[in-house]
Amino acid sequence: MPKITIAIDGHSSTGKSTVARQLADYLDYLFVDTGAMYRAVTLFALRKGYISENHFDQAGLIEALSQVELEFVKNEEGVSEIHLNGENVEKAIRTLEVSEFVSPVSTISEVRKKLVEQQRKLDKGQGLVMDGRDIGTVVFPKAQLKIFMTAAPEVRARRRYDELTARGHQLSFEEVFENVMERDRIDSTREDSPLRKAADAIEMDNSETNQEDQFHIILQLAKDRIAGRI
Ligand code: DC
Fold it and tell me: By the 8 A CB rule, do 223 and 1 touch?
């Protein structure tokens, strides 16, 4: 069977990673959550003090980027998790604090250059599902299948809120809603690789579609593309 590259881009909290992971599992492809990479760099910046509540030392972070080593490692259940300099940070990158600063960090061209280079190296022609904001536009403009996911902001904030509170985080719906809106704004208006739909991407609004149905729709699209290559 020929293997294809699948790019899944879209707004925050649209379930991109969930569906990307499901597809990769089903097709036995490699799954890469590029948001986790930007989050890990943000966690590094917070821990090293390049970012604090009212200070962002961008030059310092850029200089320290060579000390950032990211790797995806499968856990005992076969789930791919991100490691920052050898430490599993899959949980630590999912806090609201990291979410608050990840969009500003993602505007830095040096950060993007480093991560995009690493992302491109992960495509070894063995089947890949990668999700993010610029996968279909910048990282893999020739991906055989591109999906652009979106949903109403209230729906996305509600999903994020439910996810965070289920994990024991104490926060209000308003805080989460504001973060989702602010990240959309920064991600869509930044100069380097802004979030936008590639001309040949298929747009899917999942405000009212359940995850299972959406998975089957995208899987069918993937199967059609694979069949088209035989
Ligand atoms: O997918 P996510 O919400 O975990 O992504 C976190 C942030 O990382 C997002 O707000 C913007 C940034 N990002 C990016 O700029 N480019 C990508 N390919 C993936 C994520």
Answer: no
First-to-last alpha carbon distance for the chain, in angstroms, is 7
Cβ–Cβ < 8 Å for 135, 5: no
Q: Whose CA is nearest to atom 4 of ligand 1?
A: 35
Q: Residue 107 CB: number of other CB atoms within 10 A?
A: 17
Six-digit token string for 115: 């991560």
Sorted by where each starts, the structural domains of the chain and their CATH numbers stand as: 5-225 (3.40.50.300)
Q: In a mutational test of the pocket of ligand 1, which residue from 133, 188, 191, 195 has the highest number of ligand atoms less than 8 Å from its CB?
A: 133
Ligand 1 atom, smallest distance to 33 CA: 1
Q: Give exposure, 203-220, as e/b (b: 16+ Cβ within 10 Å).
A: ebebeeeeeeebbebbee
DSSP 138: I
Q: What is residue 2's three-state secondary structure?
A: coil
Could you read off the pLDDT of 9-42 as tens digits, one per residue?
A: 999 999 999 999 999 999 999 999 999 999 999 9
Query: What's the pLDDT tens digit per position in 37-75?
Result: 999 999 999 999 999 988 999 999 999 999 999 999 999
